[in-house]
């Protein structure tokens, strides 16, 4: 009898959203980030930081959106960590500058931040760790 590889594969807890590339829909992403961070027992400050970080990442990408593009966002829930990836087809595929105030704010709010490009699609990734440990004590 052979083992089923799917039975031993870890289950990933991922939420993915696809929205029109329009700032009018950013409230949906901010709310999703807040709700998922709350599910991981993030502090209120961490939750607010994530809401602002998601907004900031999108604000960097949206002005360069290709016509008819969609904003794709995925949230991966891990123990005491929320990983977020925001992707958008842009007009030029250029990465956001890391020498801007916006990038500095984003890294201060979200913890680990990176950007990558695959052709014209630009992705900003963030990994925010909870500032509390699993027992709920500040850490």
Secondary-structure map:
Elements: H1 5-8, E1 13-20, H2 26-39, H3 44-61, E2 70-78, E3 81-89, H4 101-110, E4 112-118, E5 121-129
Antiparallel strand pairs: 1-2, 2-3, 3-5, 4-5
Helix pairs in contact: 2-3, 3-4
Structure in a nutshell:
This protein is α+β, with helices and mostly antiparallel strands and 139 residues long. It has helices at residues 5-8, 26-39, 44-61, 101-110, and strands at residues 13-20, 70-78, 81-89, 112-118, 121-129.
What spatial order of strands do you see in the largest sheet?
1-2-3-5-4
Radius of gyration: 16 Å
Strand content: 25-35%
Mean pLDDT value: 89
Fill in the CATH topology.
Answer: Heat Shock Protein 90
Number of helices: 4
CATH superfamily: Histidine kinase-like ATPase, C-terminal domain
Q: How many beta-strand runs? A: 5
Q: What's the level 1 CATH class?
A: Alpha Beta
Instruction: Provide the helix percentage.
Output: 25-40%
- Principal-axis shape equals globular
Largest sheet: 5 strands, antiparallel
Distance between the termini: 47 Å
Derived from helix and strand composition plus strand pairing, the structural class reads alpha+beta
Uncertain residue segments: 134-139
CATH architecture field: 2-Layer Sandwich
* Total number of distinct structural domains: 1
Order of helices and strands: HEHHEEHEE
Describe the structure in your own words.
The chain is α+β, with helices and mostly antiparallel strands and 139 residues long. It has a single domain, classed as Heat Shock Protein 90, CATH 3.30.565.10. Helix content is 33%, strand content 30%. The protein has 4 helices and 5 strands. The protein has a 5-stranded antiparallel β-sheet. The termini are far apart. The C terminus is likely disordered.
């Amino acid at each position: 009898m052979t083992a089923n590889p799917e039975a031993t594969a870890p289950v990933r807890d991922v939420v993915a959203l696809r929205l029109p590339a329009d700032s009018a829909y950013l409230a949906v992403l901010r709310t999703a980030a807040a709700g998922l961070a709350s599910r991981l027992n993030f502090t209120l400050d961490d939750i607010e930081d994530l809401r602002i970080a998601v907004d900031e990442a999108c604000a960097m990408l949206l002005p360069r959106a290709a016509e008819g593009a969609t904003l794709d966002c995925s949230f991966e829930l891990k123990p005491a960590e929320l990983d977020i990836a925001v992707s958008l087809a842009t007009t030029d595929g250029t990465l956001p500058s890391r020498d801007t105030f916006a990038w500095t704010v984003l890294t201060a709010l979200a913890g680990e931040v990176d950007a990558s490009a695959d052709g014209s699609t630009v992705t900003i990734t963030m990994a925010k760790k909870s500032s509390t440990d699993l027992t709920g004590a500040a850490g």
